[in-house]
Design a protein that fits this description.
This protein is α/β, with parallel strands linked by helices. The chain contains 23 helices and 16 strands. The strands form 5 sheets. Strands 3-2-4-13-5 form a 5-stranded mixed sheet. A 4-stranded mixed sheet has the order 8-11-7-12. Helix 12 runs parallel beside helix 21 (483-509) and helix 21 (483-509) packs across helix 23 (529-545). 49% of the residues are buried.
């Protein structure tokens, strides 16, 4: 098969988001998929799962694996993943030695582009993206169609898919119906692990209820500034501010999901809902001018809330993960701070938001190269990844070694103090990355509930509170354009996206006067956003029919 060596032009934000999200065990990331599997118990009990015979091969065999850079793990192991106790034990069990290739943090997109260009792929790689889509990466001779290997060499992975919900069935197959990736699948459907939270102790002190509407939020943020002396009443990271727009029907989020669904039709806020977009941008501009938003938000590097601002009582509302109040913001907690989850604001009390990002999306996936097949290693690669979906492999991946990092209590795994109160001073997050498969680790049957062991119940409750919003309007990231569609779309939307990002930020900060709003929308229309919507609609229609 001819290798045309197409080089990707990946949206880097997707990979950045994926890397950042691995800081939360069992959390999800944009890009590929997460699958959610509903079950009665969070631990494996499904009789369809097949026992894996270990070791996987009689003679020790090496597989080459290219993976993303988990900075925390790399620091713990001195840059050598084979010194991580989890991988040491994995090699003992499987008799498979992994020769790891880990690019510098932040360079993954560039480095994978170079892999595509060279055609010299490892046996297994963490899939970032391919310009023409994963079906094209198979047709062009780079990646292996795993469908013929599924039943014989990946029975546990297929059982996880087949026991999943309908959405999982779509996300784990390509438009051509192929099994192309070994994806991160959850044993249970996790509620949203992130959202906006506010200082509940301040609300109580100031006599304020949990805010619901934009007016409520403005009153609250003003009180935080004037009565609590906040430098940054609302703290957000650059485009995170877009998540506050859903209540106005401004459906563009910080993951780069610029489209939304309304009655089966793909929409674009700055084209289809100009009135809602204007209201949102006017509101954010007013808040920014009044000093209610962190003046440095556009250049902030704190993705999940700035711990310096929060711990020093300079920020009262921010977007973060439910694990952070008791970890990253522990200093504030020691001073008596309490945090409570809040929904995205709405115009009127009782309005519902349907643009929450569903927790069934995850960018963690491994793929197998055709080079591995030519070397006779495809079957072993498939079996190695399938082990993570077996009963024993999933238990090991999530909890480590029985008697060391966990014990069984009433038939369920429970972490030992080596994990929850590590004698060497490692944090729980570090222990998960060192003694178990790291949060976000590709090719894993993930039990997100493992991290709940060290999170206070009131913060675990945050997930349920954020989950009250719906996600029917969210455009599924699993929808894929064809080669021809993608080429046409890239030519059109690359410039539109750059323009939109610049102008939305400018309209919020005042660098672009609101009087130019109509001209901005006209420019987007003249740039043929309508055709971009049509192309997205075609991809969505095929996705729904999978």
């Amino acid at each position: 098969m001819k290798c045309t060596k197409r080089v990707t032009s990946v949206v880097a934000a997707a990979l950045v988001a994926a890397a950042l999200l691995t800081s939360c065990g069992g959390s999800d990331k944009k890009g590929g998929s997460v699958a959610a599997v509903k079950s009665d118990n969070h631990y494996l009990t499904n009789k369809e799962f097949k026992e894996v015979q270990l070791p996987l091969c009689e003679e020790k065999t090496t597989l080459t694996v290219w993976t993303s850079n988990d900075v925390v793990t790399m620091n713990l192991c001195g840059g050598d993943l084979n010194k991580v106790p989890f991988f040491e034990e994995l090699e003992k069990r499987t008799n498979v030695h992994i020769e790891w290739s880990v690019p510098a943090s932040g360079s993954e997109t560039e480095q994978q582009n170079l892999l595509w260009a060279s055609g010299d792929l490892p046996d297994i790689l963490y899939y970032v993206s391919y310009t023409d889509g994963i079906d094209a990466a198979i047709d062009d001779g780079y990646l292996l169609d795993l469908t013929p290997y599924a039943d014989a060499y990946m029975p546990n992975y297929m059982a996880a898919i087949n026991n999943g919900n309908p959405e999982l069935q779509k996300m784990t197959r390509t438009d051509a119906g192929r099994i192309a990736q070994i994806q991160y699948i959850m044993q249970d459907e996790q509620p949203p692990f992130y959202g906006f939270m506010v200082r509940k102790d301040w609300l109580d002190e100031l006599g304020l209820a949990i805010p619901e509407t934009y007016d409520d939020w403005e009153v609250m943020l003003t009180a935080f500034k004037e009565k609590k002396g906040c430098k940054a009443p609302l703290g957000v990271f650059a485009n995170q501010i877009r998540d506050l727009g859903a209540g106005f029907g401004f459906c563009m989020d910080f993951w780069g999901t610029d489209y939304y669904i309304e009655n089966g039709k793909v929409k674009y806020s700055l084209y289809d809902n100009k009135a809602g977009a204007r209201k949102f941008l006017e509101t954010m501009n007013r808040w920014y001018e009044k000093g209610l938003i962190d003046p440095d938000f556009a250049s902030s590097t704190q993705f999940w809330g700035d711990p310096v601002l929060v711990n020093n009582n300079q920020c009262g509302a921010f977007l973060s993960m439910y694990t952070f109040p008791s970890t990253m913001f522990a200093a504030a907690g020691a001073q008596g701070a309490e945090f409570v989850a809040v929904s995205v604001p709405v115009e009127k009390k009782g309005d519902k938001v349907t643009f929450r990002r569903p927790n069934q999306l995850n960018g963690s996936a491994y793929v197998v190269s055709q080079k591995a097949a030519k070397a006779g290693k495809a079957e072993l690669a498939a079996k190695w990844m399938d082990y993570f979906f077996s009963e024993a492999g999933a238990l090991f991946s999530n909890y480590g070694v029985e008697g060391d990092t966990f014990t069984m209590v009433n038939g369920k795994p429970q972490f030992t103090e080596k994990m929850t109160a590590n004698p060497e001073g490692k944090t729980f997050d570090e222990c998960m990355r060192y003694y178990t498969a790291a949060p976000g680790q590709p090719a894993k049957y993930a039990d997100y509930k493992r991290e709940v062991a060290v999170i206070p119940p009131q913060y675990v409750q945050m997930m349920e509170d954020w989950g009250k919003s719906g996600y029917s309007a969210y455009y599924p990231t699993g929808a894929q354009m064809t080669i021809e569609e993608n080429a046409e779309y890239a030519k059109l939307y690359t410039d539109i996206s750059t323009y939109v990002n610049e102008k939305v930020m400018g309209l919020i900060t005042g660098a672009v006067p609101m009087s130019e709003f109509d001209a901005v929308c006209k420019k987007i229309e003249d740039s043929n956003i309508k055709r971009c919507i049509e192309l997205r609609q075609s991809a969505y229609d095929r996705y729904i029919k999978r």
